[in-house]
Design a protein that fits this description.
three-stranded antiparallel β-sheet, 21% strand
Length: 117
């Protein structure tokens, strides 16, 4: 993930770098972006996180994993697995993911999937 963040920030050529994170969950990817902006862009940038932290779909409609149960326990309320579906609907295509993070690249023409090797 750090490699992707570094490449995206460096492609921005030192301009103010903005990230909108939809579905922040616990904020680990937001922290990675903020650290990347600090490290690779001299702190010139902004990370905006949006997440209502409310259930997106009813628990009886999804299969629960141990991870979701841990998340619910930490939040003291049901976790919204459906954010993944909503993100895919927004982009109208499969959303790239890497180590649990969603990754899409915005070009002037479109949103693109990102493949990290």
């Amino acid at each position: 993930m750090e490699k992707f963040i570094r490449e995206e920030i460096e492609n921005n050529q030192g301009s103010f770098f903005k990230v909108l994170e939809i579905g922040s969950w616990l904020g680990s990817s937001a922290i990675l972006w903020a650290d990347g902006i600090k490290k690779y862009n001299k702190g010139k940038g902004l990370v905006i996180c949006v997440d209502p932290w409310v259930p997106f779909i009813k628990p009886e409609n999804i299969g629960y994993s141990k991870t979701l149960l841990k998340m619910e326990k930490a939040l003291k309320k049901p976790f919204h697995l459906g954010v993944s579906m909503a993100v895919g609907d927004f982009f109208n295509k499969r959303v790239s993911s890497y180590e649990g993070f969603w990754i899409m690249r915005k070009t002037p023409e479109e949103w693109q999937q990102v493949e990290i090797s």
